[in-house]
Amino acid sequence: WEVFNLIFICLFQQVLLLAFVVPAVPAMQSEAPLNAMDLVATLLYGILLLGEAVADRQMYVFQTEKYRRKAAGEDMGPYARGFIETGLWAYSRHPNYFCEVSLWFAFYLFSIAATGQILNWTIWGAIFLAGLFLPPGASCDLTEAISLTKYPEYAEYQKRVNRFIPMPPKMYDVPDERQPLCPRDA
Fold this sequence. Notes:
Elements: H1 2-21, H2 24-29, H3 36-72, H4 95-115, H5 124-133, H6 139-150, H7 154-160
Helix pairs in contact: 1-5, 3-4, 4-5
């Protein structure tokens, strides 16, 4: 475990963090004045940071109340399915992941503003982070697999709500007698 801690916890994560923030290097070395791209990067970064905080808070509140009700033996009500599907989670199954990955691409915009180059060497940190979440077998797939084994109704949620990029929920008929989560086509 000591070798694992040294390599993964200490070294790998430090290199990863440096890769994420490396777009600050050309921005700090640049003589260019602040420009519209800096404003766009700042606004996007702030919005995405807020979005991640909101998604994380919504999940925390949901899980806290779900386990409180379960421990108290109370009716589970909207928590009966076991997973959150309201708030930002109604538009993306992983809104926190979406905001986290997008946040570092927004941070990359600062290097574009400084260098004037749409593609430059500092993009690798954001690409690497996306690689931790999006490819087959990465974090999104892992959490999806866990949720499918824990919650039978998660498959229906997967059909209705986009996996990563927030989008309006898909419309469809609900096969059972519960109140539909999306309106039926008329």
